[in-house]
Amino acid sequence: MRKVLFMALALFAAGTLSAQQDSGGISAEMLAELRSAERDVVGEKMARNAMALNNISELATDADNLAMIDTHFSHRVKTKGITDQQQSGRCWLFTGLNVLRAKMIDDLDLSGMEFSQNYLFFYDQLEKSNLFLQAVIDTKHLPMEDRKVEWLFKNPLNDGGQFTGVSNLVMKYGVVPAEIMPENYQSNNTAQVGNLIKLKLREFGLALREQRDRRAPVALKVEMLKEIYSMLVRAYGEPPVEFEWTRRDKDGNAVETKSYTPQSFYAEYFGDIDLENDFVMVMNDPSREYYNVYEIEYDRHVYDGDNWLYLNLPIDEVKALAIASIKDNTAMYFSCDVGKYLLSKKGTLDINNFDYESLMGVEFPMNKEQRVRTFASGSSHAMTLIAVDIDEEGKPKKWMVENSWGPSAGWQGNLIMTDEWFEEYMFRVVVDKKYIPAETLKLLEKKPIELPSWDPMFAYEE
To answer: Is residue 44 part of a domain?
Structure first.
């Protein structure tokens, strides 16, 4: 089939060269060539009729792959409960906090635990606002048409993010239980507030660029951030500085009641975990050289925090690190291109879920490297990697992630992916250094290769 298709394309190209306009446009002769292309008239008519009235994914669902995948996993991290980010792009934050809550539930044998995403999201939006305003100050010497300045004004704020947002925010502001600063309508539906703050930030950015007094910008920025802070309080509530919390055992019995600050709460229950220094973001990006460290400019949440660094490794080495972590009952921050071949009603990620080639009458042969380079694929969503199923030869057959789309989405709130899908559409996993071989850790001593903020790998996970 592929050989026939390529031959047809070659003949088509040869026949249309003379028909193309000198300007590169479609001439009448070229259009005639396009219309005269040999087609499977019956198949095309059937496909056109079906597509006129139905969703493409429904039509392309492969009937030979409708049976539910086996849900047994040889190794699974102990977790309880499913969270729900609702209509927001905060998957990165839910994922990071889900990793922490899994550890706390297991360590203390709790019936459940959830941290306040709203609390950290408040500071995320404040810190990103400061990041934008300070970046505008730093680039005042550049013309407005400069690509970096243009990128800043196109992206002043976002509710998406990645692991460095979790690590920098948690280590700076601590954590609080969900009931201390609960979700509200705006935190569950972030678009409208986000758009209003972005509008204000762009206004402020222009004002900062017009300042001529060198001493004025920072003082002016503080006044601007006061207004942003006020907008955030109205939308999400004011974050607690101190609170009281009662810890209960798995049967609901009170164990102790204490007063905490968000920072002291983190120190008491996670004091041995340094999110900023104990973890490594590992990437599988075949469009770039493996065994190098990469850094993306402005890809951070906190101005005085860290751009995210990633160590680029072949997929088999990424798998080995993930398996080591799961076997030790440690969940991981994981991100992927979740929209590709997702069959929601089954909760599976499988490249055999859909047969788009038969439906459309063409092939889609690009590999992972080509999809990344052409912006056809990239990391779009973060989830918590919690399980792997390994065969008798020690090779993974499938994986499972805890999602943050609520308990009714997917398979019991989780998504199950085949190993083949994992290879094609997995991008990032954050691994504790203790699971990484010494020779691999030494690669982190390399000077990072800096990439611009508009690089394809700068993709907020939502």
So the answer is: no
Write down the pTM of the prediction.
Answer: 0.91
Give the domain extent around 376. Answer: 275-451
Helix (H) / strand (E) element for 50: namely helix 41-53
Look at residues 327, 332, 342, 431 and name the one whose alpha carbon lies nearest to residue 380: 342
Pairing verdict, β 279-283 and 309-312: parallel
> Are the C-beta atoms of 427 and 378 separated by less than 8 Å?
yes
Pair (349, 368) in one structural domain? yes
| pLDDT average, residue stretch 367-380 | 94
pLDDT digits (tens, 9 = 90+) for 31-78: 998 888 767 677 788 888 889 999 999 999 999 999 999 999 999 999
At 341, list the tokens: 């071949």
Active-site positions read 91, 381, 403
What is the pLDDT, as a whole number, of residue 215?
A: 66
Alpha helices in 362-418 (DSSP H): 368-373
Place of tokens 């469009």: 287
CATH of the domain at 398: 3.90.70.10
